[in-house]
Structure formats: structure tokens, C-alpha cells
Amino acid sequence: DITDEQWLDGLEDTSAVLNGLGLEWWPCRGTLVALLRHGARSGSLSQGRMDVVDHDVDIMVGVRSEQAWAAQRMQIEAGLRARGWSHCIVRSSVDALEGTEAYYLGRTDLLLCFRQDPPLVMDITSYVASDAFGGIAYVQRFCPAGPGSASCYVPADVGAWKATAGRLRQADIYPLGRCKAGARLSVPCPRRPLRTLQAFWNDMNGTSIAVPDLEKRRIRTGVLSDLRETWQSEALSAEDVQILRQRSAQLDAAGFMSMTPYFGQFN
User: Fold this and answer.
1) CA dihedral 107, 217, 43, 175 (to 10 degrees)
2) What values do phi and psi take at 146, rounded to 5?
3) Considering the domain boundaries, does residue 267 fall inside one?
4) What's the CA gap between 153 and 167, in Å, rounded?
5) Rounded (5°) CA angle 256-27-128
6) In this structure, how many other beta carbons lie within 10 angstroms of the beta carbon of residue 144?
7) Is residue 189 part of a domain?
8) What is this structure's pTM?
9) Tell me, what DSSP letter sits at residue 99?
10) How far apart are CA 125 and CA 93, in angstroms?
11) Which of 43, 80, 180, 240 could share a disulfide with 39, CB 3.0–4.6 Å?
């Protein structure tokens, strides 16, 4: 597995390339959880234990049209290659059988980029957010009769955001805040983080992001993030929760987003 510093180096590459291109972006999934909880990839708990949240870099990139993404993903790959990354591949978040309407209408909204030494994957999901769509953002939009036709619709049951019927309110994203990412970096973060996480995972709630939920993590990924999580069979203690609360308070005091809004169950 990579070290926290190597993971942070990958996130710094992400920030440099995407900011250099003037793109709208923010961390999602495990990367967002890590930064809100710890301001880093991992954080200490009681009795010398570590909560290692993420093992790749999960990113959302916002564009104003599907056509714009086709060009921008090539610029992203070129920028990462210039910083020593190996290559990128495009995919679609639509998991559909060949021959179905969804198979042919789904766009390639995903960009997976790979660094070899040390090994790291950057998992980028693009979304479209435009004033023309009534305050929503989407990752997939099907147009059976062609782009711009009255037949276009956002499919509710496919794509990266199918847990929220294929869409997010732009108000859940904007205005972007800031998340701490290690000692030397901060990155944009969505205004309502929990809502963006629920778009990917329909079993997500405030409690399960504020504190480690290793059972859900194993079910979702099949592995733990790091061998330092050999304590997975142990329950969190009141001391652990207090440590996490204090860490969130420190992030708040420094002007960063945190897990503070999601500790309600533990009051």
C-alpha cells in the first residue's frame, strides 16, 4: 500500500493539473470522507490505532456540456503525464448490457488515471451543471432522438448518481467550500457533502461518515484501506468519538469544512 505522503502527492498532482486548466472540481467518495474527518488520508484514534480512509484519489469534475468534457479529459491526461503519471482510460458509469438503450446512449463520464511508482489510481467522474437544466447537475443524460431534442432525459436508475435518481441539486454543490488536505494543501469541497455522498451510496448517513464504519467499508470495497486497520473487529470507544470531535473542531477553527454537522447521534 502507499503511504499517506504518497497519496497526498497524488492529490497535489490533481490540484495542480485541474486548477491549471481552470476546471471546477472537488473530492468525492472516500477522498471527501477522509478530508472532512481528518484533513488528510488518515488520522489517529485511541490506543495507537489509525483510521485509514482511502486508497485512491476520488474526484468530481464539473463541466458545462458533455462536449466540453470530451476535450477536457484529454487535457487532464496530458497534464498528469507531464507530472509522471502513466496513462488514463475512459469509461462509462452506465453498467448496461450490450444491445440495450442505456448501453448505446450512456456517455463516457469516467476517467481513470494511473501512476506506476508509487502505484496510485485517480478516479475522476465528470458531471454537467448548466443554468439550462433548472438547477440540477447530472452525470448521464440520454437523448434517444439526438442531442438537443425533446426526447432527452436524465435516467434515474443508471450511472454514478443512481442512488439519487441520477441527479444532484446544484445547491448541494455550490458555493464550494475548502477542505484541508495535509499540512500544505487545501482543496475545494461541495457545500453539502453528505448529499453528494448519498448520490453514490444509498446507505450513507451522517453517522456513518462522521466516524469509521468498517463493516460498510468492507462491503463496499472488499478490502480495508491499509494494514494499519487490523483493529477492524473492535468497536469504537467514547474516547475515539471525542478524538474525532476534537479533530473536526480544529478543522472548523482553521476555516475548513469538517464532520462537525454529522455528530448528532453522539450528543
Assistant:
1) 40
2) 110, 155
3) no
4) 11
5) 120
6) 11
7) yes
8) 0.90
9) T
10) 8
11) 180
Asked if residue 44 lies in contact with residue 220, where contact means CB atoms within 8 angstroms, the answer is no
Cβ pair 130, 68 in contact under 8 A: no
Question: How are beta strands 186-189 and 57-63 bridged, if at all?
Answer: unpaired
Amino acid found at 236: L
* Beta strands at 119-129 and 57-63: parallel, antiparallel or unpaired: parallel
Extract the C-alpha cell encoding 103.
Answer: 448501453
Question: CA 166, CA 139: separation in Å to the nearest integer?
Answer: 7
Q: How far apart are CA 243 and CA 130, in angstroms?
A: 41
The SS3 call for residue 4 is helix
Residue 122 lies in a domain: yes
The answer to whether the beta carbons of residues 171 and 135 sit under 8 Å apart is: yes
User: How many separate domains does the chain show?
Assistant: 1
Q: For residue range 3-49, what is the model confidence (pLDDT) as tens digits?
A: 999 999 999 999 999 999 999 999 999 999 999 999 999 999 999 88
266 is a domain residue: no
Strand 110-116 relative to strand 87-91: parallel, antiparallel, unpaired?
Answer: antiparallel
Three-state DSSP state, 140: coil
Q: What is the pLDDT of residues 147-202, one digit of tens each?
A: 878 889 999 998 999 999 999 999 999 999 999 999 999 999 999 999 999 999 88
* Cα–Cα distance measured from residue 58 to residue 156, given in angstroms and rounded to the nearest whole number: 22
Predicted confidence (pLDDT) per residue in 59-90, tens digit? 999 999 999 999 999 999 999 999 999 999 99
Burial zone of 16 (CB within 10 Å; 0-12 exposed, 13-18 middle, 19+ buried): middle
